[in-house]
Amino acid sequence: MESIKKYIAECIGTCVLVTFGCGTAVAVGCASDTGSGYLLTALAFGLVIVAMAYSIGNISGCHINPAVSIAMLIRKQLSIKDFIGYVIAQCIGAAVGCVILGIVFGLDCSFGANRIQAVWESGSVGGAFLVEVVLTFVFVLAIIGVTSKTENGAVSGVVIGLTLTLVHILGIHLTGTSVNPARSLMPAVFAGGDALSQLWIFILAPLIGGALAAVVYSYLEKE
């Protein structure tokens, strides 16, 4: 029963992330030359993490991201069974979020799907892959670091939310910023087209970035 509650919390959290984060991107646009829309999208993703961290964090840890879950699996803070349960719940939550976006904005909206951005003149598959690995590494490293000490509990949600905002501020211009396979998977499925052809980047690269963060932090904290 306890595991089921964790999975439900992860489902709700990821649904909120997609609904408000991707929904803001759809509503205001997130092209770097539009100014406020770009920043509003970055803030929306960060603020969702703050809200969810202080609401479901004490239930599931508020991963709402397979890249975070794989890092916790590597650090032996999550069992294989719960890792699988978390990822399934996260993907279901992302799908529900997309259904909400489809109802609100119409099924022809972008759903905030990740793509290599056309304005990134030097953008390439390899470059996009590297960007997502680096962004996810920084994000997950911050999560592991701030949650590794119990005395940080009062501020951890704010730190994690601001870090997600930070990586979006750079990443939106380049890849739309994934750092989260569940957040990318379902919007791509609903949007279709080139979002599906590039989807592998936004699944594999964040998982590698999250795993690297876990390995590096585990090495650094050893005495």
Layout: helices, strands, pairs:
Elements: H1 2-28, H2 36-53, H3 57-60, H4 66-74, H5 80-105, H6 125-147, H7 156-171, H8 181-191, H9 194-197, H10 199-221
Helix pairs in contact: 1-2, 1-5, 2-7, 4-5, 4-6, 4-10, 5-8, 6-7, 6-10, 8-10
Written description of the protein model:
By secondary structure, the protein is mostly helical. It contains 10 helices and no strands. Helix 1 (2-28) packs antiparallel against helix 2 (36-53), helix 2 (36-53) runs antiparallel to helix 7 and helix 6 (125-147) packs antiparallel against helix 7.
What's the gist of this structure?
With 223 residues, this protein is mainly α. It is 72% helix and 0% strand.
Q: Could you give a short account of the major beta sheet?
A: none
Helix content: over 70%
Return the structural class. Answer: mainly alpha
State mean pLDDT (0 to 100 scale). Answer: 94
Distance between the termini: 38 Å
Percent of residues in beta strands: under 5%
Taking Cα atoms only, what radius of gyration do you get, to the nearest Å?
A: 16 Å
Q: Helical region count?
A: 10
Number of separate strands: 0
Low-confidence stretches: none
Short key terms for the protein model shown above:
globular, single chain, 10 helices, mainly alpha, 223 residues, 72% helix
